[in-house]
Amino acid sequence: MPSFVPVALVGDIPPGQAKAFVVGDLEIAVFNVDGQYHAIENACPHQGGPLADGWIDGNVVTCPWHAWCFDVRDGRMTLGGYTTVDAFDVQVEGSTISVWSEPRS
Ligand code: FES
């Protein structure tokens, strides 16, 4: 049964940064963009680069391996637009950040 899974506390991910968490069988990168949290699949669809370790500029993360870029709000590739990564809903309750255990459809 899908559910929100607690992954971190608000202070764990400073603005402009990201961290990866294992949720079930998935590895999910959670980004803090000016206090708004967004979650996408951590593995880049090119060759699996860890997107949580990428360069973050506003809502865009650049893969640290070969520089493919994705919008962290919906997982869409920002240059070319021919692929996406899965995006997940995020909930903040009190100081706890939780991620929905299945991708947004
Ligand atoms: S693995 Fe991400 S761009 Fe190549």
Fold and architecture overview:
By secondary structure, the chain is mostly beta strands. 0% of the residues lie in helices and 44% in strands. It has strands at 4-9, 18-23, 26-33, 36-41, 55-57, 60-62, 69-71, 87-88, 90-93, 96-100. The radius of gyration is 13 Å and the shape is globular. 30% of the residues are buried. It binds FE2/S2 (inorganic) cluster. FE2/S2 (inorganic) cluster binds at residues 44, 46-49, 63, 65-68.
Quick structural gist:
With 105 residues, the protein is mainly beta. The protein has strands at 4-9, 18-23, 26-33, 36-41, 55-57, 60-62, 69-71, 87-88, 90-93, 96-100.
SSE topology sketch:
Elements: E1 4-9, E2 18-23, E3 26-33, E4 36-41, E5 55-57, E6 60-62, E7 69-71, E8 87-88, E9 90-93, E10 96-100
Antiparallel strand pairs: 1-10, 2-3, 3-4, 4-8, 5-6, 6-7, 9-10
The chain binds FE2/S2 (inorganic) cluster.
